[in-house]
Design a protein that fits this description.
Length: about 850
């Protein structure tokens, strides 16, 4: 016991029916109506201690001694294993549970850490599993996805819950994570140089650990204007528990009912839902089993502008369901853990992850927006994942070894469904696409791919007198390429106890197989693609200042190679002519030409790098004590890519196509990054790589996050979050060309002209302020927390893209027009005098209660 006073602590006098809070000296003063026995309840860290006291005279004083409480658990954001500090960022549950602007979603705190930035908002276009590219710009070197870790690809990351695969960590548009906040025990964020256990990634790892025990039966309910969630947890026995959680959002319903005029014309708010279930049982000493099931669904509505346009022009609503995108996933897993003592642990896990996405595609007349036909692009992916892991502590607190292996089998299918004819031009356009576009043909006929990967790892953890050394090695085999790679990894640190200073350094190699079906498809891709490669290097200093302050500075450099990129020049001169449609419709042609030249569309030609410095300054506080807390994170980095593709002028392309139409390719080889083709006219063609190293599509030079919270007393808390980031680079539109009226049925249509300097322009920087106010009510049965959030306090409209209207010529500051992010930076528009609009914050009010 410390014998120290406990300030700002709730105290309930049951018989008096009154609630008090101790002052800075740990004292309360209260009045009772009569002498006698009273029940006093003291609430600390979610626990209630009960004391019986007798009041025998007026002015009586007494002291209550309570058990010392060690603050633990909550939710922590970790950047490596719990005993290492390299790329590790720790935030307590009290700090992030009420992070402004996220409705109590702790996982959103990930995006406030150094080296982490959101990808292109998925709510504005295809999801990360769609085979449709980011835009129609002449140059791109990225894909859509959720998160960018230190300049890596958005699809180069892996996400796990209790070691089981998660298809995506956030709902559409990064509005919310796919997990109930209360089921999370901790989560690890690995942004570089991570453990040899983790494979199948060249970017980052998010490993979420769920609650694994239940101390008492309870239920938690959270209801606000845009979503509701609930979680129940119960003890099945002293050694068994069950936990279930669910959530449902309804932003479209709320906004359309309360203030439909305030919805921006192109705003997209996804309706989403998710669930988690897990049960654990220690059926014998040292023997545990875990069953888990979790999943999510996202439904993307049309924008208000599209709905109003279609209703106005065609006089009736579209008969199809108002869904532009519908995606879902589900994971079911089983784990067995054997731990005979504290020094040995063996774990076996197996899970099945199923993902499905319906993405609606419309082929439209560019003049009238009239639909020619529509279809649903249906992508399905099933992953079976198994892992065996053994951990042995050879010398207590000095040497520990971990070894194991994992197996991953992926099956992906792509198929068009619900094809709808909506125009007389349907037959012609549809057949033209089938004849000219092999990707479209594969979509209509259906495409599939299957791959297997096997990994094994060995890692030592050595600690002695302030030194920590973690050498490891990982081996990965990828069956489609018949490729095996060995990846060494090493992290180290040295801590000076007297000054609480830790020096950090590490390096590692990582490999990841191509993630998309169009890349590895034998019909429209390159099934011989190899694994992508990344080299991570990091070093820095971790300085603790007193008990509450932390300063961390890290530098990093990541080198990327064998990146999968679109390739217009790679070909197979002797591919088997097995196109199903040709076998049926052009049988004689196939018999005469059993081998044909086939474009492979993708290659491992891409390279790149990312380098920068990260700074974190953090102030903590004890959860039960009033005061302020928060952190400032800043990242300065540069990320570049080179696709290594020859850049030809239009006239050069036309000349090359004309020449090659009269000759046949006999052989293709590569010297460095240059192709050499040999044709049947005995001539060689050199395709010279004159590509340039350009900014990465998702590069952000500066990223700043400022988070603060102030616990005024046990009843009130306020918090704020400010974020600033350099916008991503784009290739700007500099003019337009009028299309030939003969090819546009006499319509005046214009095609945009892009700058020759790719990714040379950036939109204005993004910035946003969020505020949250909390009011707490503590009761004998639990607590209630009312909160009010002002999301995007000053209504900042952050540009994420631009839209060119083909019916109008280019006009600076008019066409193209900007598109604003309404998912990460939502706002409400309100008309004012003079026909102008005022942009206001999105207001969210909610109530959380625990019973």
């Amino acid at each position: 016991a410390t014998n120290l006073p406990i300030p700002d602590t709730p105290v309930i006098i049951k018989e008096a029916g009154k609630y008090y809070t101790t002052n800075s000296n740990g004292i309360i003063k209260y009045e009772v109506s009569k002498l006698g026995h009273y029940t006093i309840r003291i609430v600390r860290s979610g626990k209630v201690e009960v004391f019986q006291k007798e009041i025998t005279y007026d002015g009586q004083k007494f002291t209550i001694f309570v058990n010392e409480v060690i603050e633990k658990g909550g939710i922590e954001v970790l950047g490596e294993k719990d005993k290492t500090k390299l790329s590790r960022y720790t935030l307590g549950h009290d700090e992030i549970k009420r992070l402004p602007g996220v409705s109590g979603d702790s996982l959103k705190a990930i995006q406030t850490l150094p080296g982490v930035s959101p990808g292109i908002p998925i709510g504005l276009g295809p999801s990360s599993f769609s085979n449709i590219s980011i835009s129609g710009q002449p140059y791109r070197n990225s894909d859509r996805g959720d998160i960018v870790f230190r300049g890596a690809g958005t699809r180069a990351n892996q996400y796990y819950f209790d070691g089981f695969l998660v298809s995506y960590p956030f709902h559409l548009g990064n509005q919310s994570s796919v997990f109930n906040n209360n089921i999370i025990k901790s989560f690890d964020i690995y942004s570089g140089a991570y453990s040899a256990r983790y494979g199948y990634a060249t970017g980052g790892i998010i490993n979420i650990e769920g609650k694994d025990e239940v101390k008492k039966n309870s239920a938690t309910v959270n209801i606000n204007m845009f979503l509701s969630d609930a979680m129940v947890e119960g003890k099945l026995s002293d050694k068994a528990y069950i936990i279930a959680a669910t959530r449902k959002s309804y932003p479209n319903v709320t906004l359309l009912k309360l203030y439909p005029e305030g919805i921006p014309p192109n705003a997209k708010y996804a309706n989403y839902e998710d669930y988690q279930f897990k049960t654990g049982w220690e059926f014998a000493p040292g023997h545990k089993i875990l069953l888990a099931s979790f999943g999510a669904r996202d439904m993307q509505k049309y924008t208000k502008a599209v709905a109003e346009f279609e209703n106005e022009n065609y006089g009736e609503k579209d008969s199809r369901p108002p869904i532009g995108l519908d995606r879902r996933f589900r994971t079911d897993g089983f784990r067995y853990t054997f731990q005979p003592n504290t020094r040995i642990q063996n774990t076996f896990s197996i899970s099945r992850n199923h993902f499905q996405e319906f993405f609606e595609v419309k082929i439209q007349n560019p003049m009238t927006a009239e639909n020619i036909f529509g279809l649903e692009n249906v992508t399905t992916q099933t992953i079976v994942f198994a892992e065996e892991r053994l951990s042995v502590e050879l010398f207590k607190n000095i040497l520990k070894v971990e070894a194991g292996g994992n197996y991953r089998e992926r099956g992906i299918t792509l198929k068009a469904e619900n094809i709808s004819q909506q125009n007389s031009q349907f037959t012609k356009v549809f057949n033209d696409l089938l004849d000219s576009n092999p990707i479209f043909r594969a979509l209509i006929d259906g495409d599939k791919a299957k791959s297997k990967e096997v990994g094994s790892f060995l890692e030592f953890n050595f600690e002695y007198k302030g030194f920590k050394l973690v050498p490891g090695v990982r081996s990965d085999y990828y069956n489609l390429a018949g490729q095996r790679e060995v990846s060494p990894r090493l992290s180290s640190s040295y801590t000076i106890d007297s000054t609480k200073t830790t020096f950090l350094a590490g390096g590692s190699i990582h490999h990841n197989a191509p993630p998309n079906i169009e890349q590895i498809s034998s019909r429209v891709g390159n099934s011989n693609l190899k694994m992508e490669k990344a080299e991570h290097l990091a070093g820095g200093i971790n300085q603790e200042i007193g008990d509450k302050w932390l300063l961390k500075i890290e530098g990093f450099r990541n080198i990327y190679s064998n990146l999968v990129v679109s390739d217009n020049f790679i070909q197979n001169p002797f591919a088997i002519n097995d196109e199903p449609r040709d076998l049926i419709q052009r049988t004689n042609y196939v018999l005469r030409n059993p081998l044909v030249t086939k474009s492979l569309y993708y290659s491992n030609s891409g390279t790149g790098f990312s380098e920068g410095v990260e700074i974190l300054l953090k102030k903590s506080k004890t959860p039960t004590v009033k005061g302020w807390f928060g952190w400032i994170s800043y990242t300065n980095s540069i990320t570049k890519r080179n696709n290594h593709q020859a850049r030809y002028e239009q006239s050069e392309n036309s000349k090359r196509n004309l020449l090659n139409s009269s000759r046949k390719l006999l052989a293709q080889t590569k010297i460095g990054t240059n192709y050499i083709n040999y044709y049947d006219d005995n001539n060689l063609e050199l395709i010279y790589d004159n590509d340039k190293t350009e900014y990465y599509d998702l590069d952000r030079t500066h990223i700043l996050n400022m988070i603060f919270g102030w616990k005024i007393n046990s009843d009130w808390q306020v918090g704020g979050r400010f974020r600033y980031a350099t916008n991503v680079p784009i290739t700007p539109i500099t003019g337009s060309n009028r299309m030939n009226p003969a090819s546009t049925f006499g319509l005046n249509l214009y095609m945009p002209e892009y700058s020759k300097d790719y990714n040379s322009y950036r939109y204005l920087p993004i910035h946003q302020m969020d505020i949250r106010i909390d009011k707490f009510f503590n009761f004998e049965w639990g607590y209630m927390n009312m909160y009010l959030e002002f999301v995007n306090l000053y209504g900042k409209r952050n540009i994420v893209s631009e839209e060119f209207q083909n019916t109008k010529p280019y006009l600076k500051n008019s066409n193209p027009s900007p598109t604003y992010d309404t998912t990460n930076s939502p706002y409400i528009q309100s008309p004012v005098r003079g026909g102008h609009l005022m942009y206001l914050p999105l207001i969210n009010f909610g109530l959380e209660a625990k019973f």
